[in-house]
Design a protein that fits this description.
The chain has eight helices and ten strands. It is α/β, with parallel strands linked by helices. Helix 3 runs parallel beside helix 4.
Length: 282
């Protein structure tokens, strides 16, 4: 049984991600945990000394959180009732990132599925800071869903890689699961400025070939393109339904997503995005 966290702030954006998850895992035995976190907008330890007024605010927020989770459960039971799916709810006085870290550290959580805010304006703000903090720190794969994306089967999966990671089964298993469930084709893409792969990279590419030997897949080599440009160009030419990337420290992924502010990125992404940590807690 898959164990999946569904963070929600009760927005349309987070409900859209929940709907995606329920359809993505429609044929899989799953236990979903709905999570809502709350803290006062201004919260410092010394404020707790004020006493009952502060505690009253916290009680009100807790009640609102619990009511919101009940409302979502009612919607799920009405629209997506599924005997393969079970649910629990967590209402926590915590930050979202800290709560997800606690839930995924040393546990057997398979996925975190959450919404993004979509790219807006010239700055190409792709994700809210919460989503990017979760992606950066989570010990489990994170599936991020753009706010305006309606579910479609991920028949074409794009997996860019610099082949600088010694791939393990737990890295590739989420991609194999997608391919098996939806009969997907995996497009493994390496972008460079014309240099040859090192022996280390060639060895890691061979590891991937072995992992994907029973799965429909194609290797693509793109020269004289940045990773951002290569992904954008590939999306235009192919009907990609899911982008998968490995969050490997000191890799092109980290450079791509965290070289500037936490929630700015150099290309517009409008499809679901699965991020697999290089170290998975199991």
């Amino acid at each position: 049984m898959k164990k999946i966290l569904l963070p929600t702030d009760f927005s349309d954006n987070s409900w859209n991600a929940i709907k995606y998850a329920l359809q993505y895992f429609k044929d899989v035995e799953c236990h979903f945990t709905l999570i809502n976190t709350y803290t006062p907008i201004i919260y410092q330890v010394e404020y707790m000394e004020i006493g009952s007024a502060q505690f009253g605010l916290i009680d009100a927020m807790k009640e609102s959180s619990n009511e919101g989770l009940k409302t979502i459960m009612t919607k799920i039971e009405k629209e997506f009732k599924n005997p393969k799916h079970s649910f629990s709810q967590v209402s926590s006085f915590n930050t979202l990132t800290a709560e997800i870290n606690e839930q995924t550290s040393g546990s057997d959580i398979d996925y975190v599925v959450m919404g993004t805010k979509g790219a807006t304006g010239a700055a190409e703000i792709l994700f809210g800071s919460n989503t990017m903090h979760v992606i950066k720190n989570a010990k489990s794969p994170v599936l991020a869903i753009p706010s305006d994306f309606s579910f479609e089967k991920p028949l074409e999966v794009l997996f860019p890689s610099d082949y600088n990671l010694e791939f393990q089964k737990e890295h590739i298993q989420p991609i194999l699961d997608v391919a098996k469930t939806f009969h997907s084709r995996v497009n493994i893409m390496n972008a460079s400025f014309g240099y040859d792969l090192s022996e280390f990279q060639e060895a890691n590419k061979k590891i991937l070939e072995e992992f994907f030997k029973d799965t429909a897949h194609i290797f693509h080599s793109v020269s004289n393109h940045t990773v951002e440009d290569a992904i954008a160009s590939f999306q235009l030419k192919h009907r990609i339904n899911l982008l998968v990337m490995m969050n490997n420290k000191h890799s092109f992924f980290e450079n791509l997503f965290f070289r500037s502010t936490i929630n700015h990125i150099g290309f517009h992404l409008n499809i679901p995005f699965l991020v697999i940590p290089s170290k998975i807690s199991k």
